């Protein structure tokens, strides 16, 4: 099943300037909302490798703006992680991103990957380290001595809630891959809840 957002502007001559935007394949649309010239579509999608036999587990929001020409323009995409309690605002180029979640020493690591990433031309990932507050405080008190890294400094805290600290690793973007500045700006939009 394919899902599309379709716009049709009603004029005195009938519907004019129609456009459609592909949202996804076998996703679970939940709500749609229309604000001034903007359509917000909230839906659930699957993680990479998640079986089609299971319900989608990722919450996503797609923001489509209707231009004066009646075209749908991709706006901001909100990545929201209810399990850990944080969100990021991605730009429209990240539509169809993938997410991996792995256990790391003392915590979790979530990586959001750009859809244009390839082995021959990697795009900078959005790497989010998630640590329990108690563990973070132990490192913080000791100026991150004992933190598992080869860098001479500790991770950068980006946000926190009452359970976790969300951080980026030291030198996470020192490879200067395509999009590294864009990723830094995206990470700055992180909010915890």
Write the layout of secondary structure elements.
Elements: E1 2-11, E2 14-25, E3 28-35, E4 38-45, E5 58-66, E6 72-81, E7 86-90, E8 98-104, E9 107-113, E10 126-132, H1 133-141, E11 156-160, E12 164-168, H2 180-187, E13 191-192
Antiparallel strand pairs: 1-2, 3-4, 4-5, 5-6, 6-7, 7-13, 8-9, 9-10, 10-12, 11-12
What report would you give on this structure?
This protein is mainly beta and 193 residues long. It has helices at residues 133-141, 180-187, and strands at residues 2-11, 14-25, 28-35, 38-45, 58-66, 72-81, 86-90, 98-104, 107-113, 126-132, 156-160, 164-168, 191-192. The chain has two domains: 1-81, no CATH class; 82-193, no CATH class. The strands form three sheets. It has a six-stranded antiparallel sheet with strand order 3-4-5-6-7-13, with no helix packed on it. Strands 8-9-10-12-11 form a five-stranded antiparallel sheet. Strand 6 and strand 7 form a beta hairpin. The model has no long low-confidence stretch (mean pLDDT 84).
Work out the helicity level: under 10%
Silhouette? elongated
Detail the poorly predicted runs: none
In the residues, how many domains can be counted?
A: 2
Number of helices: 2
Count of individual beta strands: 13
Give the ordered list of helices and strands.
EEEEEEEEEEHEEHE
